[in-house]
Amino acid sequence: MWSVSVGELSRNTRHCLAQVRAGKDLEITEHGGTIVVVRPAHGQEPPRIRPRIGGHRSERPLTAEEIDVELARGLGER
Predict the structure, then answer these.
(1) Most exposed among 9, 37, 43, 62, judged by the fewest C-beta atoms under 10 Å?
(2) How many CB atoms lie within 10 A of CB 60?
(3) pLDDT at site 36
(4) How far apart are CA 35 and CA 72, in angstroms?
(5) Which CATH architecture group holds 2-38?
């Protein structure tokens, strides 16, 4: 289980929720005591990470050749 204070949760809400979406239980504390435990919803699959190439995200895994093409575009080669 992962633990954060209320203050840390306030400053890093998106990061904390991303950890829950990834399957980790989150314990939220205040003054050293647990006030709530947040768990991922049952039956919810963790988000699929899509590769980021050339400033956009692909909807499917890219082949090595496709990655080479995207990298070449990013370096100004065509």
Answers:
(1) 43
(2) 9
(3) 95
(4) 51
(5) 3-Layer(aba) Sandwich (3.40)
Residue of 2, 62, 57 whose CA lies nearest to 29: 2
Domain with CATH 3.40.1620 in the chain: 2-38
Q: What percent of the chain has pLDDT over 90?
A: 37
φ, ψ (nearest 5 deg) of residue 36: -165, 150
SS3 per residue for the chain: CEEEEHHHHHHCHHHHHHHHHCCCCEEEEECCEEEEEECCCCCCCCCCCCCEECCEECCCCCCHHHHHHHHHHHCCCC
Q: What pTM value is reported for the model?
A: 0.54
